[in-house]
Design a protein that fits this description.
The chain is an alpha/beta fold and 252 residues long. It has helices at 2-17, 33-47, 58-66, 79-87, 124-129, 143-154, 158-161, 171-179, 190-195, 225-234, 238-246; strands at 25-29, 52-56, 73-75, 97-101, 104-109, 134-137, 165-168, 185-189, 199-204, 214-219. The complex is composed of two ATP-binding proteins (ModC), two transmembrane proteins (ModB) and a solute-binding protein (ModA).
């Protein structure tokens, strides 16, 4: 079931990347979907222009842009993949800006009860997982997975649970595994948990257990600036920021 769920989600992601040739394309971290959909709708209402929104793991998006995908604006869920884009001369560094912040949480299916102790040295998570899987973004490259692994290492839990990890290709697929009841616990952003009624927050990772979760945004080097710049600026308006905060994002 885990492999089937991830397989279907991966096919969907591949279809999402294909076939877009219009300007004003926004490549954004998967965890932004609900909030950015609303922000984009407000932008369309105000300007009459409809951005093409492409969601996925920040690592996948950065590599797609590197290979020539027609992105005009890139929003990463961490600094590392924006650093990657900058190192490979994919973005206009003068436009790089820290747009949003987030928190990291442990989720469980909504029908369950009880919280999980996420303090240093606690063995609660490992005991409650039992033979079940811990859904999280792939800790090798997905930002939510990298944050999650760092937090688990800081809490002394990684050696106990790493063999139980169900690695998803982006954070929304990890969320889906828990929402479907295919994994008893998962690690996602707080905004992901807020967006899915079939899960609940079973614990919040201490802020000092991982690097600050920051979403940087930048206009790409290949962008059609006449289309990209207005949307890039709109993301930073009080109206757009209020929408992001309504979905649980914070200021960086």
């Amino acid at each position: 079931m885990l492999h089937r769920a991830l397989g279907v989600a991966t096919v969907g992601a591949c279809l999402l990347f294909a076939g877009h040739a219009a300007a004003q394309q926004v490549y954004a971290a998967a965890s932004m979907k609900n909030a950015l959909d609303d922000v984009s709708a407000a932008y369309t209402k105000e300007t009459g222009k409809t951005p093409v929104l492409v969601y996925g793991a920040s690592s996948t998006l950065a590599r797609q842009i590197e290979k020539g995908a027609p992105a005009d604006v890139f929003i990463s869920a961490d600094q590392d993949w924006m650093d990657y884009a900058q190192k490979h001369d994919l973005i206009d560094t003068g436009t790089r800006h820290n747009l949003l912040g987030n928190a990291l949480v442990l989720i469980a299916p909504a029908a369950t009860t009880g919280n999980v102790d996420l303090t240093p040295g606690a063995a609660d998570l490992d005991a409650k997982l039992g033979n079940g899987k811990l859904a999280m973004g792939d800790p090798a490259h997905v930002p939510a997975g990298l944050y999650g692994k760092a937090a688990l290492e800081k809490l002394g839990l990684w050696p106990k649970v790493q063999g139980k990890v169900a690695a998803a290709d982006n954070v929304r697929n990890a969320l889906l595994l828990v929402a479907r009841g295919e994994a008893p616990y998962g690690i996602v952003y707080k905004t992901d948990a807020n967006a899915e009624k079939r899960v609940r927050i079973a614990g919040t990772f201490p802020a000092d257990s991982h690097a600050p979760i920051v979403y940087p945004v930048a206009v790409t080097k290949q962008a059609n600036r006449a289309d990209a710049d207005p949307f890039y600026r709109f993301l930073q308006t009080p109206a757009a920021q209020a929408t992001f905060q309504r979905f649980g994002f914070t200021r960086p």
